[in-house]
Amino acid sequence: MKLLTALGALALALPLVLSAPTPAAVAAAPPNISLTNVKAHLTQLQTIATNNGGTRAHGRPGYLASANYVKGQLDAAGYTTTLQSFTYNGATGYNVIADWPGGDPNDILMTGSHLDSVTAGPGINDNGSGSASILEVALEVSRQALQPTKHLRFAWWGAEELGLRGSQFYVNNLAAAERTKIKAYLNFDMVGSPNPGYFLYDGDNSDGTGSGPGPAGSAQLEQTLAAYFSSIGVPTRGTDFDGRSDYGPFIAVGIAAGGTFTGAEGIKSSAQAQLWGGTAGQAFDACYHRSCDTTANINDTALDRNADAIAYSVWTIATATPPVTVWSDTFESANGWVTNAGGTDTATTGQWERGDPEATTSSGTKQLGTTVSGTNDLVTGRLAGASAGENDLDGGTTSIQSPAITLPTGGTLRLSLSWYLAHGSNASTADFFRVRVVGNTSSTVFQQLGAASNRDGAWSTATADVSAFAGQSVRIVIEAADASGASLVEAGVDDVKITR
User: Residue range 452-476: average pLDDT?
Assistant: First the structure.
């Protein structure tokens, strides 16, 4: 993992998840990945480092030998592999790219890890652990002759430790049409730390810290991984998309990302030791970027759990039947949404409207001037005005109601939408963003309350199971409120969809 001056958020806050992900159809059962096999790959990487000056760093013989080892395993397993070369700091680096035959070529699930070490050591936890784990998952795909609905692509990146050079080269050299085919990227960087935590990249920004959520779809990747760890009784916590690993170039071009992380040089707190065991007051990996990052620097339990989590996510995501869209609205056209349909709204300004939003700032971004897709969204007072507070939500509640939607019977029905709620530090829990479904009964399916702290606008994705309304004619009601006085409140919605 690339070193930055700060570790980033290793928050203990529980992620805000509406519901665990449910594939649209029953997927192939994920396998149990052999810890013995993963450790055998680590032994090979250690031997390569030992035979090449104790390192597998960019531009060194140990790195090319590592890349050739991985490529040889994949070639023998039936993958179409490429050793993609690039130059950095006057030295040649390599990415190993491996494609499994079959699956939808326009719907690619990509899984990656960086393969290089720092110059100081062999890099067995950082990041032999991730590299060996995804290699064994890729080999298990071959053993089972998996026939996924998505196309599977695996990648081992070079020169990550020098600034994500290999993954950045790969993304930069993809044609725009090829980038759009990659629908999700899973990244695994340090998954066997000796004093481990169990962190998931915070795709939905439920922790509310750092750089905000990942691109649309990142929340679902986080939920899929969370579902696996929940199934084995291991609690997880969020870690920010802080730019330390190879997801960075992918999220920069709008590709959804997720993954796991067991900790680097950060210090395990007492609360984290109580949650996961291990030693409080010591680093998750005391040998981070040091010569002692050898095969002795691995926690077998963490490595085993994470390898199985990788397999779970690959199998679950790649083999599920794609959902069928029952109804959707991107707000590029007027499709019958009605403001204040019940006649009970109290807001004096900032009522919901469909349009091209203008950006506002006040102690950070408040109203977003960008949409998730297209030009228009639903927004509370789309004009910026002379100041951020001129057209913000004031005076109480504003609501907007969808046209009638006839839901089919049978199957799992899921509502999803992109949303944000922004407010100033003088907000309170009386302020809110809320989504209700109204049919024969009414149910609040999502709610985000305000708080007495500054919250900047950032698009997030919410999902909810609405199968209880199957066979009914329903309407979606979206509400926002500035009910705590003079707080600056803004909200937005885009890309509402119901799938089965």
Answer: 95
